[in-house]
């Protein structure tokens, strides 16, 4: 098995949210795929944020493509010149007002959907978070900050109160990490 060879690549659409690229690729057996569409997105970061009293900080927001309200861990995309850690600290502070002086714990780095997308999500655990700031949201963000006992999240996932995949994944990674520390 070998990587495909890109014979041609052109953008069909570009926007601040992401780009759509059309590639012509040749497989290792010589088969040519004329129209392979690739969604280019910036990498995303998210964090399981735990307060000093072991509550998890989630945000509830409307998601238009999902046509509903979702409970999620704080998250966002990397801005130019930021490290992943700087990005998640900024996103957590902007969305929730929480900060932490503790070292962030990297839970994992995963491709979102390598069949069609170029980006990955980098998940962290932030511990001993304290509320120090007011929210500083983008003009299109409306977020309610929620707090739950960490132990209640698994039941919330089972009961479909939490259905956002990156939140479910980050929670399970954090739970696994905490069970071994």
From TrEMBL:
UniProt cross-references to InterPro entries, sorted A to Z: Nudix_hydrolase (IPR020476), NUDIX_hydrolase-like_dom_sf (IPR015797), NUDIX_hydrolase_CS (IPR020084), NUDIX_hydrolase_dom (IPR000086)
Gene3D superfamilies named among the record's database cross-references: Nucleoside Triphosphate Pyrophosphohydrolase (3.90.79.10)
Keyword terms of this UniProt record: Hydrolase
Tree of life domain: Bacteria
Entry EC number(s): 3.6.-.-
Enzyme category, top tier: hydrolase
GO biological process, one term: ribose phosphate metabolic process
Gene Ontology molecular-function annotations: pyrophosphatase activity
Cofactor: Mg(2+)
Nudix hydrolase domain ranges (all copies): 40-170
PROSITE patterns: NUDIX (PS51462), NUDIX_BOX (PS00893)
Pfam families: NUDIX (PF00293)
Family: Belongs to the Nudix hydrolase family.
The protein's name in its UniProt record: NUDIX hydrolase
Originating organism: Sporosarcina thermotolerans
């Amino acid at each position: 098995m070998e990587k495909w060879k890109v014979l041609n690549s052109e953008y069909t659409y570009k926007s601040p949210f992401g780009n759509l690229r059309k590639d012509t690729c040749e497989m290792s057996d010589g088969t040519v795929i004329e129209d392979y569409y690739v969604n280019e997105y910036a990498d995303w970061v998210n964090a399981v944020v735990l307060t000093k009293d072991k509550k998890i900080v989630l945000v509830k927001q409307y998601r238009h493509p999902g046509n509903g309200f979702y409970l999620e861990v704080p998250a966002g995309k990397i801005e130019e010149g930021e490290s992943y850690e700087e990005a998640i600290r900024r996103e957590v502070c902007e969305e929730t007002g929480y900060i932490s002086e503790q070292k962030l714990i990297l839970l994992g780095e995963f491709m979102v959907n390598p069949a069609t997308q170029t980006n990955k999500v980098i998940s962290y655990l932030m511990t001993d978070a304290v509320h120090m700031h007011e929210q500083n949201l983008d003009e299109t963000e409306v977020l309610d900050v929620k707090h739950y006992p960490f132990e209640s999240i698994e039941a919330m996932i089972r009961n479909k109160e939490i259905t956002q995949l990156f939140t479910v994944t980050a929670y399970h990674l954090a739970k696994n990490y905490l069970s071994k520390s």
